[in-house]
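Might I ask for a little of your time on a matter of protein folding? What I wish to show you is a protein chain and, alongside it, a tokenised description of its three-dimensional fold. I should value your view on which stretches of the chain appear to form regular backbone elements. You will find the record immediately after this paragraph:
***
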Amino acid sequence: MKKPTLSLLTLGMAAVLTLSGCSAFRVYTIDLPQGTPLTAAQAAQVQVGMSANQVLYILGSPALKDTLAPNRWDYIYDYTAGTDGKRKDKADIKNASQYLSIYFNNQGQVVRIDGRDSLPAIRH
């Protein structure tokens, strides 16, 4: 009687070990967007001479406002595809490759815009 129980236990353990590597039983992971996703069209609306409030209205809050450089706003975006993103073949966006930096003068007006060429034409 002990012999069939031992073989069933061995077969069960082998099945568990074999199926643990199967992709059908993987854990669901979420898509992980970080930052502010912007498009080139949104960035094109921002012009030199605009006020900080106008920029805030067009683009929303920046991802970074450095307390040591209060006249610079940084909009960055990273994306790590989870289960749904991988199913839709969305590419990962790493190392803040999509960014927009906006510089203001002491009166709160835009004086320089960097990074427009890093933004996509359509939202990711």
